[in-house]
Specification:
It contains 8 helices and 2 strands; from the N terminus they run ααααααβαβα. It is mostly helical. 42% of the residues are buried. Pfam families: FTR1.
Amino acid sequence: MLSTFIIALREGLEAALIVGILVAYIVRTDRRHLLKALWGGVSVAIAASLALGGILSFTSAELSTRGEELFAGLTSFIAVALVTWMVFWMKRTARTLRDELHGKVDSAVMTGPISLALVAFFAVLREGLETALFIYTNFKTVGAASSATIGLILGLALAVALGYLIYNRSVKLNLSKFFTVTGVALIIVAAGVLSYGVHEFQELGWLPGADAYLWDVTPWIAKESILGSVLGGTIGFDTTTSIVQFIAWSIYLAAVLVPYLSKKGAPAPRVPASV
């Protein structure tokens, strides 16, 4: 539940702030007639993200056991790569994001409402598709679909509420610290997803050491227990963790957290929606 909540809150707020920047600029420049096109693009992007989530779940359910292991492993690795790229992208481009979106709106206005709808569509789709893929792989890691779904709903609801309050300047949030903390949390969750992907490839026989456990604590913590699900979904803890899984988890955390927490790169602005 906690991991899906963090994912939904972080990615949902990013999307909400992007939409807020676009809406605020359109309103400020007295182009309210374009809001319909903007919301149309946002709606289609949300629908496409939900469709991807449905396709991933349906495909996984229809595969054989071996095919499902391959699919789960590949989607885990892709999700980790996307999330890693996105947290560094946000760190690098946060200060210029507002100006970049303003420029895209100005360019799109010259060619018509459809172009503006496409700007909104691709801006939100980037966040939505990443969220759908990462949520799917995290669901597989957690194993408890009901609690993970609750975390997803609560995270998205809070993200939308915060985005609206920031847009109306009803609340001031230090987004630099928020994105730094949630970025670290996402990286830790991604390490767990990576460990899960390694495990699936070990089950396929494509990676060695499937039975070479660093620890096996199943006598004390059941894999399907609440504690096992929470630890698995947040820090990637597996009750039967192989040496290869632990090495991959550790290397990823060290290789990603160190440069992410360095002072190089621009932090997120405090209130990007106030234009």
